[in-house]
Amino acid sequence: MGMSALYGEADRAESIATIHAALDAGVTLIDTGDFYGMGHNELLINEALRTAPAGAREKALTSVKFGALRTVEGGFTGVDGSPNAVKNFAAYSLQRLGTDHIDVYRLARLDPNVPIEETVGAIAELVEAGHVRHIGLSEVNAETIRRAAAVAPIADLQIEYSLISRGIEKEILPTVRELGIGVTAYGVLSRGLISGHFTRDRQLAANDFRGMSPRFQGENLRHNLDLVDALREIAEAKGATVAQTAIAWVLAQGEDIVPLVGARRRDRLTEALGALDVHLDAQDLAAIERAVPPGAAAGDRYPTDQMAHLDSER
Ligand SMILES: NC(=O)c1ccc[n+]([C@@H]2O[C@H](COP(=O)([O-])OP(=O)(O)OC[C@H]3O[C@@H](n4cnc5c(N)ncnc54)[C@H](OP(=O)(O)O)[C@@H]3O)[C@@H](O)[C@H]2O)c1
């Protein structure tokens, strides 16, 4: 996502080099949305896969979100999860990605005007036709997950989950575990906030989402970076970085949870992959819980108008 939109300028050559380095290191899951830069991200992935060595390209799995409606100026005007729209979005995505199938396909935000059964039913038809391999969900609540799973097998739920965004633990995580659905956790570094690299005085570009995000504002930012300082002490004692510790914490929550890391440069990717060597035992996990208890973050994870689109928060 950050290679095409939302976090200010990105470097195209470095983005492609980062995807190649990820594939070379054994990363196999590439997540995108057709609305990330309005097609820009899918075309970027197309180029990266086309220019990657064949062995790596064949192992790469694509996970695509759809449904967002945009304006010429880049605004978001709603979501369309109706069956005709699902098939139309998929046709364009396949063309942009240059592939004959999408591995996991999911509606980015629940369409309040279309029952989830209809959206999932349309993706199931794409599975039947061979255009999609698996059905995913994004940012939906336990009831919606059950309704979707009653229509067709659901592979995974993509949802924000990190040390400072633990809303899924109460109801959503037990539900997906009961139903045998995996989780792709996004925002494991809370968009860089708990990466250890974000500073109080960082200047953000006008089009950077973080400039509008409640957690990055004034007193909230100060409070949240104090949490990062507490985490840094634990990380340093483990010989790890803050980002590695935050990713390792998500990895430690279960093998059914796959952290989606938003690295957009090779140096960040190398750091993130180092999390695989950070093993947190019960004592480490308890120390992390004390430093950053559930609910410790100040500010919502999205601006108020965007929180309203999250079925997962209802
Ligand atoms: N389903 C959904 O609703 C949804 C929503 C959002 C995202 N997603 C998916 O989840 C993916 C990850 O999301 P995200 O980028 O917001 O999450 P993230 O991994 O929490 O944040 C990534 C940002 O953290 C900073 N960072 C600092 N150190 C890093 C390191 N060692 N490794 C990686 N990043 C580091 C980078 O910002 P700087 O480069 O500015 O330092 C980077 O852009 C997205 O690409 C997208 O595919 C899904």
Automatic annotation (TrEMBL):
InterPro entries hit by this protein: Aldo-Keto_reductase, NAD(P)_OxRdtase_dom_sf, NADP_OxRdtase_dom
The entry's keywords: Oxidoreductase
Species for this entry: Streptomyces eurocidicus
Positions of transmembrane segments: none
Region (Disordered): 295-314
Entry protein name: Aldo/keto reductase
MF annotations from Gene Ontology: oxidoreductase activity
Pfam families, sorted: Aldo_ket_red
Presence of the UniProt keyword Mitochondrion in the record: no
GO cellular component annotations of the record: cytoplasm
SUPFAM superfamilies: NAD(P)-linked oxidoreductase (SSF51430)
Domain NADP-dependent oxidoreductase as annotated: residue spans: 6-291
Domain of life: Bacteria
Gene3D superfamilies: NADP-dependent oxidoreductase domain (3.20.20.100)
